[in-house]
Structure formats: structure tokens, C-alpha cells
Design goal:
The protein is of the alpha+beta class. It folds into 3 domains: about 70 residues; about 220 residues, Sandwich (Acid-sensing ion channels like fold), CATH 2.60.470; about 60 residues, no CATH class. It contains 12 helices and 15 strands. The strands form 3 sheets. Strands 1, 4, 5, 9, 12, 13, 14 and 15 form an 8-stranded mixed β-sheet that branches. Strands 6-7-3-10-11 form a 5-stranded antiparallel β-sheet. Strands 2-8 form a two-stranded antiparallel sheet. A hairpin with a 6-residue loop joins strand 4 and strand 5. Helix 11 crosses helix 12. The longest helix is centred in the first third of the chain and has 31 residues. It is elongated and about 130 Å long. Keywords: Membrane, Transmembrane, Transmembrane helix.
Length: about 425
């Protein structure tokens, strides 16, 4: 049932054939249901427009995890050495020298501090569970004669995922990340920003995450699978203890190399958390909900007022190919189209009835099932007749014999006067 067609029926047909009270009830109920449907549509539209999406998380096993990039900042000059550590107790191996960028201080920089970096170039160094490689151990020495213990504000450490380091990502990736989340890089700096103190041994255990941000476009809002922008990042658990065997400077300027602190960065978590952004409302989902709600309202209307006559043609037939449909009907019914045209002068009642039956079977009633079982009743009657004949012969009764003779004399007729059906004869 369509509400639009029902409105037309109320105006054109029901008001002429039904009591005023019933017509008024139909119109009132239809107005209320259409208003409810419109309100529901407005709610769904607002939910789509205001949908900010949700993040769904799942853990995925990761046998290999990229070694993070490390930035160390200090007010005094220092140098870095590092070695790779293994879980099985294997002898540590020194890191390649090109992975470490020794501190430099750019006179034009804003902070006027020394910056040193450790970078896993092109993912060359990775934590590997099968190889038991689980950490990198840094030794940090200072050699700046200006250093005084009482002026030491600490050494600052930042850690980033090597696949998404703000300092090394391509510019287009950098711009896309800022477009999706203008505060993303600021959040990265705050996630893994730690302070190393003098005479400390520090441990940083990392956990890897991959945030898949949805790139919003019309197709993703419509309901098609969206395109994602991946943003790997790290979280960390940081611990530090003071090493009692390290000698204090006692406020004296230093000469040569002096160990300042040690820093271990590694992982024991061989899983990575994948956070996927997803919309809670899509246009296709909302359309299906609207269609279901429309079905409920239509069913309620039918329950109250009954079901309207069947309409075999839709918008395409009535608007797009209306003339072609009419011409096709004239080919099938050359004298007159049943229910649509008056009988022609040379059209007999039998032809009119045949046209009407054909029209109803084509466009209104599905009688294919009845065609399948068309001969079942005739077969049953034939079987009953055969049984009666056999019974009469077997009993040998005179009255039955006459009946049998009568049946035998008319082998092609049945008891109703029509031609008898015999399933065993062609």
C-alpha cells in the first residue's frame, strides 16, 4: 500500500462510495501516520548529520614491532651510544652508527638546546619475537664543561612510532594528519614525553597502536566501505631508579666524558591495538530503518481500514513507458482491453470473458500453482471409478453387472456426463 495512492483513492473513490465518518477517519489517520513518518525521517537525518563516529578496538598479534624513534633534548652537550638487547640472554650487539644522530644545537632554534636522535632508518631495526630482540639500551654521556649539577633541569625524551614520526613523514602525510585532527601531533608529544634525571637508570616499555581514521566522503556516508588513513602511535610505561654507584659531580665542572644516565626502550607486549573509526549512522542504513518503519505504519493502517485493491503497475509503467504498455496490451487484446475499455461491437461475451480471465491471470492473480495441480482431481476421480468397476466385477452382483455393462458401453464417458479421464491412455 502506498500513502500517495491512498490519498488519491480517498479523494476520487472513497468519498463517493463510503460514509463521511469513514472517509474522515481515513483522512485523519493517514495525516497522522504521514506526520509520524516525516518526524522519524527528520530524526534520522539529524542523526546522520551529527554523527561523529565511534572507535572500535581490537588486538592483533604482532611478531615484529618497529623500534621507535627517540629524540633526546638537553641544555648541555652530550653524546649517545646504544646496543641491542635480547630476551634469551644473548650478548648485546652495538647499534649501527648511522642510526644515531649525535646532538647538535642550531643557533637559530627557539630553545637553544642540544638535540640528539635515534632513528630506525627505513624500519631497519625492529623488535622481533622470534629473534628475541626486545629492546635498545642507551648510554648517555655528557662532556660539556659548562655543566653544573645545581643547574640541571633534567634531560627530556620523546618517543614516536618510526612509521609515523612527525619529523620524517612526507609532507602530504603530515598535511592529511593535520586535516583529520589538528591536535594530533600535540597529542603525540604528550603521550611519550619523559624526563631523565642525573644518576638514573630508566626503563620505557612501549605498546603499539594503529588508529585508522575514516576519510569522510559521500560514499562513506552513503554506506559503502570507507577509505582509512592510518596513524600509528605509541603509549609507554616509564620507570626509573637512582643508580647508587654513580659518582656525583659535587658542583665541579667536568672534563672528558661523564656518564649521565641509562635508558632502556623495549617491549614485552607482542600485540598491537587497532582502533578503527566507524560511523554509527549511514544513509543506506537509515533508509532501511525508514522503510521498516513505513511498513509498520502501513500495516497499522491496513489493520484498521483494510487492504486496498492490487495495483499491478508502478511508476515506471505509468510514467516512463505508459504508451508502450498500452500498445502491448492492444496487441494482446485486439478487440478491447478488459476493465479499461468497453467491449467492441464485434466482441462476443465468450471472448470478453476469456479476455478478462487472461487479464486477471497476467496482472492480478498468480495461478501458476493451480495449473500444476490442475489434473489432480480428474486423476482421483478416474482412480475411484476403476476401483468401483473392480469391486462390482469381483462381487458378481446383477445390479452391479448392469452398471458395469453400462460403463463398458460408454468407455469414454464418466458419471458426470463428460469425457472420462484415463491416465493409462494417450
Amino acid at each position: 500500500m502506498e500513502f500517495i495512492n491512498e490519498i488519491q483513492d480517498i479523494i476520487r473513490k472513497y468519498r463517493k462510495t463510503e460514509p463521511v465518518v469513514l472517509v474522515s477517519a481515513r483522512a485523519t489517520a493517514l495525516f497522522i501516520l504521514v506526520a509520524i513518518l516525516g518526524g522519524y525521517f527528520a530524526i534520522l537525518t539529524a542523526l546522520i548529520a551529527l554523527d561523529k563516529g565511534i572507535m572500535m578496538s581490537q588486538l592483533q598479534p604482532a611478531e615484529i614491532i618497529p623500534v621507535p624513534d627517540v629524540e633526546i633534548t638537553f641544555n648541555y652537550h652530550f653524546n649517545i651510544t646504544c646496543e641491542v638487547r635480547y630476551l634469551d640472554g644473548k650478548t648485546p650487539t652495538p647499534c649501527d652508527e648511522d642510526l644515531v644522530t649525535q646532538p647538535s644545537c642550531d643557533q637559530n632554534s627557539e630553545d637553544q638546546r642540544w638535540h640528539g636522535w635515534f632513528t630506525s632508518i627505513d624500519g631497519r631495526l625492529k623488535f622481533n619475537m622470534s629473534e628475541k630482540l626486545y629492546g635498545v639500551y642507551f648510554t648517555i654521556n655528557i662532556d660539556d664543561p659548562r655543566y653544573l649539577r645545581e643547574n640541571d633541569a633534567g634531560m627530556f625524551v620523546k618517543v614516536h612510532d618510526s612509521d609515523f614520526n612527525p619529523r620524517t613523514v612526507p609532507q602530504r602525510v603530515h598535511d592529511q594528519a593535520l586535516k583529520l585532527d589538528p591536535n594530533f601531533y600535540a597529542k603525540l608529544d604528550e603521550l611519550n614525553y619523559h624526563v631523565i634525571g642525573f644518576q638514573q637508570i630508566n626503563w620505557m616499555f612501549i605498546n603499539r597502536h594503529i588508529k585508522k581514521k575514516m576519510i569522510t566522503n559521500f560514499f562513506s556516508v552513503l554506506g559503502f566501505p570507507p577509505t582509512y588513513f592510518e596513524e600509528p602511535y605509541l603509549t609507554s610505561k616509564y620507570e626509573s631508579v637512582t643508580a647508587p654507584d654513580m659518582i656525583e659531580f659535587a658542583g665541579q665542572p667536568i672534563t672528558g666524558q661523564q656518564k649521565y644516565a641509562n635508558l632502556f626502550i623495549g617491549t614485552l607486549n607482542w600485540f598491537q591495538e587497532v582502533e578503527t573509526e566507524s560511523r554509527t549512522r549511514r544513509i543506506l542504513d537509515s533508509m532501511s530503518m525508514l522503510a521498516g518503519f513505513y511498513g509498520i505504519l502501513a500495516g497499522l493502517y491496513v489493520l484498521i481500514f483494510g487492504f486496498s485493491p492490487i495495483r499491478p503497475w508502478g511508476i515506471f509503467q505509468t510514467c516512463c513507458i505508459r504508451r508502450r504498455v498500452k500498445n502491448e496490451l492492444h496487441k494482446q487484446y485486439p478487440k478491447s482491453i478488459p476493465l479499461l475499455e468497453l467491449p467492441s461491437i464485434d466482441e462476443t461475451i465468450t471472448e470478453r470473458i476469456n479476455y478478462l480471465e487472461q487479464f486477471l491471470s497476467q496482472h492480478v492473480c498468480d495461478i501458476d500453482y493451480m495449473k500444476v495441480i490442475k489434473g489432480e482431481k480428474d486423476i482421483e476421480e478416474a482412480e475411484n471409478v476403476e476401483k468401483d468397476v473392480e469391486r462390482e466385477i469381483f462381487e458378481g452382483e446383477s445390479g452391479k453387472d448392469e452398471t458395469t455393462d453400462d460403463l463398458g458401453s460408454h468407455s469414454n464417458s464418466n458419471r458426470r456426463g463428460g469425457k472420462k479421464f484415463n491416465p493409462f491412455l494417450d
